[in-house]
Amino acid sequence: FFYIGAGIVCCGIVTLISGDLIFRSNVSISQSARVFTRLVLYIPKLLVAILHANLDVAYRVLHPKMPIDPGIVTVDTSFQNDVLRTSFANAVTLTPGTVTVDVIDGRFIVHALVREAGEEDLLKGKSIERDLARIFGEGGQPPSDETGDL
Prior knowledge:
alpha+beta, 57% helix
């Protein structure tokens, strides 16, 4: 229990110190609550995508012919905010079979285990892009409108 308690204390300290990196001080409690709720609703969707990618990678690795075709794929996003870019890069990298190699002016360069599947997944990335824009707002701030849920 000591480690759990120490972890909670450390998380609290880090949150207090770095909270303004994600949320600016002019954000209301209701906007922060909305962002938190949308983030919690997004996590299961991300976990399903990660599970699907895990199964696909396992199939390809265990298949006798190993149907892989590694390559570099690029995807453009409209994100201007570093928090959104980092969140998108992490979502891509968390998915097995893909690794974000670099980000240049909103263009993500991704190494994919299977180039064709990587291109399809990154086209689906537009869905991830929309979800992240809904969570954090287009400029990295919580959205002010009440339209659209995840």
